[in-house]
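re the bet — no i am not wrong, look at it urself. input seq straight from the record:
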Amino acid sequence: MKLLKHFLLLLVLSSIYTGCFDDNDDVPKIASTLDINDFIWRGMNVFYLYEADVPDLADNRFASDQEYTDFLNGFSTPEAIFNALQSDIDEFSFLVDDYVALEQAFDGVTRNNGMEYGLMRYPNNPTNVFGYVRYILPNSDAKAKGLKRGDIFNTVDGTQITDQNFSQLLAPDTYSIGLATFDGTTVTPTNTSVSLTKVQYTENPVYITKTIDVGGIPVGYLMYNAFTADFDAQLNAAFAQFKSSQVTDLILDVRYNGGGSVESAIDLSSMITGQFNGEVFTTEEWNADLQDQFGETNLFKNQIRTGEAINSLNLSRVYILTTRSSASASELVINGLNPYIQVIKVGSTTRGKFQASRTVYDTNNFGRGGAELAGHTYAMQPLVLKSINSEGFTDYFNGFAPDVLIEEDFSNLGVLGNPDEPLVKAAIDHILENRSAKNYNIIGLESIGSSKMFLPNYEKMYVEID
């Protein structure tokens, strides 16, 4: 009934708002700010998880069409009304003005120079910022220029990076970074620069798959950097490799994985296990109006979305490497597996995101079909549900604390997947029940973001609705 009410309201408003357009199907519609603001209010009113917490989204908020129109006209931009309609506890809903770029980001397609980096404040001058290379994408400009994990840079085009200018400096398609060293206290320029250029790039999130011999024990190591639906088959192939190697333990590295597809998270969890097929992984809580229509129980599976059989390891424990950059779908795997197997978290505390979003377009049913007729390219990604594991646990705003605390050491990051890399070594020590003499409690620096933060789907978990 609620959806019908909004569709009827749309028809009334359309007759009011389109009078200035030619009655000619051959003339493309150009949406006004009022049109877009109307779309945003309607979509948030229908889908927003926290609708009940926002008085301006109440069904009875407006006594007349004119009052509604006046409200919409009170916001000069779509961004302004979208921000005004969000709950105070919502950090993750977002609006984009180019839904094509959003769709490409969900598919792993971005403009990228291949240097994935983090940004940290100087320990002795917190307004200044240095970057550290997390990893380098294959067949990229950064790879061709010889950059590697652990490289430090502190300037862009000769300008010191600060907490005020980093977005502007790193936004262009081409820029030069000034390399430096970091000894744990001091950043020292090397007077060497590297020029980098971004191109359209499709990233395979299955970054490293290998088996490590740990005292005769075959241990699988998987670095997985995003829950990208188009690469579920590659993820499943990695687990086929682990099955062939007869791994008895798995180290899942999601230290830089900000999330993505819920379905991919369920698939990954089913690959790790396998013995719980058909049992409850998580349940979904939508807003009160949509719970009966959309609320689902997600089950462990034995097939990926292509119909291919899942390669399951039937493990009773898993080691998951985490940092503050581990968010949403990465945390969903932790929360969904917790009631069933031993989940040993190694690293630092995760982001704390248990809600999922969906893309809302300006169409009659808010789906993708016909979006090009709206006269604009805005789309919303509001939070629409929160996930609850089989024991009823949710609302982990503070993230998941590690069982083995170890911060990354930016003066000595190590080689990803190498048994001596600090986080991997900590997991291996735990497998061997042998904690080494290394001080795991390195004092952490303050992060202000990463290369992924410029993407529209940064730290987002989403559901696909047919």
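see?? The first strand starts at residue 94 and ends at 96. told u. also The first helix runs from residue 2 to 17. so pay up
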